[in-house]
Amino acid sequence: MARLKAELPGSFSFSCVIPVRITDINYGNHVGNDAILSIIHEARMQFLRGMGYTELQFAGTGMIMTAVTIEFINELFYGDTVIASVTADVISKVGFTLFYKLEKESQGNIVLVAAAKTDMLCYDYEKKRIVPLPDEARVSLQSGSRQSGSHQSGNQHST
Description:
The protein is an alpha+beta fold. It has a single domain, classed as Thiol Ester Dehydrase, Chain A. It is 17% helix and 35% strand. It has two helices and six strands, in the order βαβββββα. It has helices spanning 33-50, 135-143, and strands at residues 14-19, 62-72, 81-89, 95-106, 109-124, 129-130. The model is unreliable at 145-159 (pLDDT under 50).
């Protein structure tokens, strides 16, 4: 069977730290695949918040995820802390791709846990249709932030 791969870009514009919760652990005593998707969602929300946006307030529009690819590389366990890096790329007239690098520290080394990407479209939830990517949002995605230093928070991690 052909394995899907999430090819990651060389650099990331944002990073945050997300602790593994006990509710993330499955019957295999490690973080479940559904929990990895939730961690990616949390990383996306923190990335957007760092630019002053949410998924429903994105420079005058909303956004909707149309596809996700996750490559599972190493296990996560309760007590681990995820270093989640996010960046935007492949920006089109109506959407963009977000890339995610999930890492953890293990025995003094940074270990890649998962690589992922989500395809996001701008979406008007009232009219139930795809809409153009606002210019303000395009600029923010391309620069990584609306204003210099807007990614700094207590959960920020340097890449």
